[in-house]
């Protein structure tokens, strides 16, 4: 499939050098993209700026109707989009793969359409009448990563539109096809210029982030790029939501039954092959059940098929790109060399495609790069602890703070411990469960601002106070 890398003012643009989008499972390219360049980036912002007054002037109810129609479009085209997503991203059609991602995108869109921005009354008496209104900001720039491209795009786009903003979205050069196709399809219900998209080389990113007509940037990606985006946004004082990297810790208390928690731990860590911002990336297990948890995880992994995502029985696919594949391989090799014990996996599966097996490593410790760095792949370090305070201290020791979890039969105690984790979301006996009605975001170097629910929606508006 060949797609345009620019949808501007309602229409796909032609031209641009052709980029082959790699299929991470190997073989033929996933598709071809005519890359957007600087002129397209500027035109996309201009189109969004021009469309803003009329879109903002529509009633919130009218916008909600159109956002709901976007959900209809996603549902009607889910299978086509899921296949495209599998081709470029690698995730399987089944399991928590492409169909799941498209289902989530539709569900998030529908839920967002049901939200309202309230008018608050601070005082209403003979002395004063003071009301607080939420107004749209203008042009919102959405920049997305390659791990959940469709769903994360929807997380940015739909609340921005509902709140009355217009949008330019820029998907990752690794996974632009599903987003560009979705944006094309959504033009059937959205007025021209309300939702624009540009995809191509990373170089168009800075053109967009520095543009004076962009009012807000919603960025999801690495901490390093997030920091560059923030610097670029500073001269024109843009608002920011930064959803950045994490290195989530999970702490398993000695009262757990290893067999009972293995599945939850497995999917907490391995969802999307570990390429998930709020996946469990460091597992701390009490000495008394350490071997039991390790064995239960290895047993569970044995039943999970890693294969080409287009095969209906694959449950995990390849790593998405060569850079990430090499990073995971390097971290595992370094851990082996530093005394970690391989429980399963640990060697690339084949030379065709970026297939890497589920890899669990025991006897891991702080100071190993596999523990201290975000691996963003299917390799989980398991760290033995005896003193809970020490485990908590290690969990909180890194500069990132996206998610965390406590696993225990005593949920009240686990909740108290979860309160001590330095992160935006902490779960008890699960990890990474997100919902469209619950705010989600990071602390420390995992970013700031939240998405989802009314908390997330409000970030796409500014307060306007009227004293009358
Ligand atoms: P990345 O930072 O390399 O790229 C993210 C996006 O930024 C891409 O679209 C890329 O083209 C663009 N970009 C690159 N340089 C830019 C620049 N100078 N200016 C503007 N845009 C630029 O991240 P990635 O490798 O695609 O994604 C993986 C990372 O994303 C991981 O660290 C992961 O934890 C994080 N992530 C965080 C969340 C969250 O909600 N906190 C969700 C998903 C992924």
UniProtKB/TrEMBL annotation:
InterPro entries recorded: Ald_DH/histidinol_DH (IPR016161), Ald_DH_C (IPR016163), Ald_DH_CS_CYS (IPR016160), Ald_DH_CS_GLU (IPR029510), Ald_DH_N (IPR016162), Aldehyde_DH_dom (IPR015590), LUC3-like (IPR044086)
Q: Which domain of life is it from?
A: Bacteria
**Has UniProt tagged this entry with the keyword Transport?**
no
For this protein, the record's Pfam families field holds: Aldedh
Domain annotation Aldehyde dehydrogenase: ranges: 18-464
* Alphabetic keyword roster: Oxidoreductase
User: Which Gene3D superfamilies does UniProt cross-reference here?
Assistant: Aldehyde Dehydrogenase, Chain A, domain 1, Aldehyde Dehydrogenase, Chain A, domain 2
Q: PROSITE patterns this protein is in?
A: ALDEHYDE_DEHYDR_CYS, ALDEHYDE_DEHYDR_GLU
Keyword Oxidoreductase (UniProt)? yes
The residues responsible for catalysis, as annotated, are 243
Family statement: Belongs to the aldehyde dehydrogenase family.
Q: What name has this protein been given in UniProt?
A: Aldehyde dehydrogenase family protein
């Amino acid at each position: 499939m060949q797609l345009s890398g620019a949808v501007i003012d309602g229409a796909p643009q032609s031209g641009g050098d052709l980029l082959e989008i790699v299929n991470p499972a190997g073989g033929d390219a996933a598709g071809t993209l005519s890359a957007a360049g600087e002129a397209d980036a500027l035109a996309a912002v201009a189109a969004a700026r021009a469309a803003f007054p009329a879109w903002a002037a529509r009633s919130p109810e009218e916008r909600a109707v159109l956002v709901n129609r976007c959900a209809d479009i996603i549902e009607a085209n889910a299978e086509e989009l899921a296949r495209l997503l599998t081709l470029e991203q690698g995730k399987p059609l089944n399991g928590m793969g492409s169909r799941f991602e498209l289902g989530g995108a539709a569900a998030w869109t529908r839920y967002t359409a049901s939200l309202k921005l309230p008018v608050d009354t601070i005082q209403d008496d003979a002395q004063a009448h003071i009301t607080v209104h939420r107004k749209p900001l203008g042009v919102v720039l959405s920049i997305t990563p390659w791990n959940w491209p469709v769903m994360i795009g929807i997380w940015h786009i739909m609340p921005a539109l509902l709140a009355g903003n217009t949008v330019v979205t820029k998907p990752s050069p690794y996974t632009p096809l599903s987003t560009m196709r979705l944006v094309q399809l959504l033009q059937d219900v959205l007025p021209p210029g309300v939702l624009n998209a540009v995809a191509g080389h990373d170089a168009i990113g800075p053109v967009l982030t520095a543009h004076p007509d962009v009012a807000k940037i919603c960025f999801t990606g690495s901490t390093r790029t997030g920091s560059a985006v923030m610097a670029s946004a500073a001269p024109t004082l843009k608002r920011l939501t930064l959803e950045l990297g994490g290195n989530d810790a999970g702490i398993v208390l000695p009262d757990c039954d290893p067999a009972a928690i293995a599945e939850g731990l497995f999917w907490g860590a391995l969802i999307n092959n570990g390429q998930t911002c709020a996946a469990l990336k460091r597992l701390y297990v009490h000495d008394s059940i350490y071997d039991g948890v390790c064995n239960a995880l290895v047993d569970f992994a044995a039943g999970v098929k890693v294969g080409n995502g287009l095969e209906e029985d694959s449950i995990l696919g390849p790593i998405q790109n060569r850079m990430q594949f090499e990073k995971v391989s390097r971290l595992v090799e370094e851990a082996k060399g530093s005394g970690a014990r391989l429980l399963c996996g640990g060697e690339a599966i084949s030379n065709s495609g970026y297939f890497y097996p589920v890899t669990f490593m025991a006897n891991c410790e702080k100071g190993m790069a596999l523990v201290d760095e975000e691996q963003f792949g299917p390799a989980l370090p398991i760290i033995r602890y005896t003193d809970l305070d020490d485990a908590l201290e290690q969990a909180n020791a890194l500069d990132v703070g996206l998610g965390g979890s406590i696993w225990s039969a005593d949920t009240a105690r686990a909740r108290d411990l979860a309160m001590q984790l330095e992160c935006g979301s902490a779960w008890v006996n699960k990890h990474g469960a997100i919902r469209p009605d619950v705010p989600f975001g990071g602390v420390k170097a995992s970013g700031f601002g939240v998405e989802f629910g009314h908390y997330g929606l409000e970030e796409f508006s500014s307060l306007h106070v009227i004293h009358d």
